[in-house]
Amino acid sequence: MDDEVNNTSPNEKCEPENGSTPRPVYRKLRGYAFDPSLSVHLDTAVINEITYKVEWEEKPRYGSEGLLPGPIGKYIEVVDYDPASGSFYAPVDLNDPHILAQDGLPPSEGNPQFHQQMVYAVTMTTIRNFERALGRPALWAPRLRIDGGIRYEFVERLRVYPHALREANAYYSPEKKALLFGYFPASFESPERYLPGGIVFSCLSHDIIAHETTHALLDGMHSRFTEANHRDTYAFHEAFADIVALFQHFSFPEVLRHQIARTRGNLATHNLLGELAQQFGEAIGNYGALRDAIGEVDKITGKWKPHDPKPEDYENTTEPHARGAILVAAVFDAFLAIYKSRVADLLRIASSGTGILQEGELHPDLVNRLASEASKSAQHVLNVCIRALDYCPPIDINFGDYLRAIITADVDLVPDDDRGYRIAFIEAFRRRGIYPRDVRTLSTESLRWPLVSGSQQFFEPLAERLRSTANDFTYFKSRREVFDTTEKIGGELNDWIVSEGHQALKKFGKIAGITFEFNLPGLRGSTGKANAANMETGLEESASGKNAVKKGVPKFQIHSLRPARRVGPDGTALNQLIISLIQSRDIKDKTHPGEKSSTFKFRGGSTLVLDLDTMKLRYAITKDIADEARLERHIQFRRGMIDGSPRATYFRHLRNAAEPFALLHRSVDSEVP
């Protein structure tokens, strides 16, 4: 892990067209670095109002696409309807000359148009970070359509509702493909810290907006990560969203320099960079921020204290936010170790070799250098955390899997870990008792997913089918083209495997964690045409909409194909195709003796990482459909025995919920949603 090359330009074209004035690369928009609460404190007001730089979107001309009032752009559509009052707020036009001239509207809690600007700026910033790390355009989860067959429909824009709820909540809706933000009156518990009864808008918190946007982006990559099969399921979703929000703090130069100066370069002490949603947390009655990666405020003394890593917490904690906080703390600890390593020489120079700085304020030049190293370290950590999503299994993700994904993603792009970044991650996870299953040591070599080595005859028939389409993944003009091309190729592959390819791919099935034979109980097979009824039982079809099940072949799904083009610090380019395969079994189980048995889906499959230059399979990251031990863990989790509670307090509400994040986020401070 080292200084990484930017893989994509912020704008496809910024040169003059037909002799016209070059268009800007970025659009500058003012907003809050954290949330409005920091703007009313003297020591933080000066750093809380920043200018976001988002990709420039042109004003539409002569029917062409562009940024419309709302804002409505390429990725998101802000719809400012307030159901509680039955009001539509006028949409902001970011192309208005007066707004352009002043870098957007000034921050204001009372101006709905600024609220629209704020959600647009933060959402686009988060999307940009994903695209830079992944090396491809971001896609939202497709919408399922059932009209004479089952098909997935491209979702061009995520809808964003700044004033959707009159409650202390905000969430991503997988059903609506939308972000919904709430507003609510602050509690009366601590009038010395905030206005009792004053309105708090979650759409004005950078952390909440980035968190919810990350849920949507993660769902667009791994839609099965919302299936509650074990304690890490929702905890991972929450933790990953927090990680992205936290590390985006380090991209704000003024904030970073201020906090470096305040902490004298020691980011392990109490600081704003490690906190999430300060105003929201205090307004609902918390002591301090909603969550803190490095410490917490003691409810008895009212003083901040650092977290003390306890390996047993990972074994005993079940509530998704608290469990997710363990993963966030591990990643933040890895960042701190990397940062300390990068600034050690600066501290030695500044302290005449002792490493202990003298009392007093730091020199501005030292502050700038420390801030620069902190920013680079944070960006490296954020990039590898996002990039690791391509190296995760498509189902049943747990924290140990994620550590292996981080290590593998980093080894692939940066083979020479001369700064020891991977060791920092391993050490941080070890301190919190996070160990992957089925590894003998915690070395980098052991944690890296195993390469598919030796003869690949088992894969050659599939590689041959992909070879003719490899060039299709090289250049795309639009996100819709990415979606349409991958869906088309996925459908053709699926249909070929069903019709004839399965005979040649039996050995490949073992590598990929699925089977092409009816050799396991619960495998589904049908020759009927897809309809709403069999969709409810989980019928999986090819992306082309054709029936993906023929007689004699168990159902399976090519869940996604994702091209990735990345460049490492040494100039090495990775041109890969990420393929997700999923298969299901219907399993009958009695939750308690005497109860009627119920049926649930047990899924298996793999993430295949294909090198498009050599057409060789590099990794097969598998959750085997035939893994009976994993199946037994699923059964025990369903019975509420793993976490010690009789009916899995949280998960009995979240399992099969149409809006799991709405329930999950509403339950932050309550035992039961």
Explain what you see.
The chain is of the alpha+beta class. It folds into two domains: 26-447, no CATH class; 460-627, no CATH class. 36% of the residues lie in helices and 17% in strands. It has 20 helices and 19 strands. Strands 3, 8, 9, 10 and 11 form a five-stranded mixed beta sheet that branches. Strands 16-17-18-19 form a four-stranded antiparallel beta sheet. Strands 1-2 form a two-stranded antiparallel sheet. The protein is globular and about 70 Å long. Residues 8-13, 526-550, 641-652 and 667-673 have low confidence and may be disordered.
Tally of contiguous helical segments: 20
Overall mean pLDDT stands at 84
Major sheet: size, sense and barrel closure? 5 strands, mixed
Report the portion of residues in β strands. Answer: 15-25%
How many DSSP E strands?
19
Radius of gyration, CA atoms, in whole angstroms = 25 Å
Anisotropy-based shape = globular
Q: What structural category do the secondary elements indicate?
A: alpha+beta
Distance between the termini: 41 Å
Give the low-pLDDT segments: 8-13, 526-550, 641-652, 667-673
Number of domains: 2
Helix content: 25-40%
In short:
Helix 9 packs antiparallel against helix 10. The protein is built from 20 helices and 19 strands. It folds into two domains: 26-447, no CATH class; 460-627, no CATH class.
